[in-house]
Write a structure and sequence with these properties.
mainly alpha; Arc Repressor Mutant, subunit A; Tetracycline Repressor, domain 2; 10 helices; 0% strand; elongated
Length: 201
């Protein structure tokens, strides 16, 4: 019965911190500002988070998990590789629609020491279905023989660049254009672009 109010306070602290650092930057956000924006007393905040760095890191972990939730949604590693790629691309598009400031928040949060980006085990576990997709393609001899992180950067990196640098929106693509986009990402991954391997069961 008493857990819900506590969870609500924690949520308010994290949400207020997120909004403040997007608006003011990491160093422009003070604990007193977080107190005012969240409506949670300073002493209570320190019961949840021992210091500002801990609070920011918790926000970072949560942000990574939210992104992973979107990107890995409905990604079934039993599906053909080409179909998995289509799901991944559509999920990334949806993720950027839902979290338009995610690159900004990542850039800000990456300034903190001991961040999730330094925790390889956490990232591997959080994005396991995506990594499994890459490993499957390698094990089946369909994808280019590259380290899996390099491989995924080839196939999915251009999409991330488009959103991050160009602030683009792929929702405006026609179905035919989206199919061509998926094909281009597929061609970047596969060893033999003209092969039909991995495209059907």
């Amino acid at each position: 019965m008493n857990d819900k109010p506590c969870d609500d306070k924690r949520r308010r602290i994290l949400d207020a911190t997120h909004k403040l650092i997007v608006r003011n930057g990491l160093h422009g956000t003070s604990m007193s500002m977080i107190v005012k924006a969240s409506g949670v007393p300073m002493g209570t905040i320190y019961r949840y988070f021992k210091d500002k760095e801990t609070l920011i890191n918790e926000l970072h972990y949560e942000s990574v998990q939210q992104v992973a939730h979107y990107i890995c949604k409905d990604l079934d590693n039993n599906l053909p590789l080409r179909q998995q790629l289509e799901i991944l691309i559509n999920n990334i598009i949806d993720c950027n629609e839902a979290y338009p400031d995610r690159f900004l928040i990542k850039a800000i949060l990456d300034m903190v020491p001991n961040k999730p980006a330094d925790d390889i085990e956490f990232l591997d576990k959080t994005f396991l279905p995506v990594i499994t997709f890459g490993l499957q393609g390698l094990e089946q001899g369909i994808f280019k023989p590259l380290p899996v992180d390099v491989l995924l950067s080839l196939g999915l990196g251009p999409l991330e660049w488009y959103f991050h640098i160009r602030k683009g929106n792929l929702q405006g693509l026609t179905p035919e254009q989206r199919t061509l986009f998926v094909q281009a990402c597929w061609d970047a991954l596969v060893l033999n672009p003209h092969s039909s391997e991995g495209q059907s069961s």
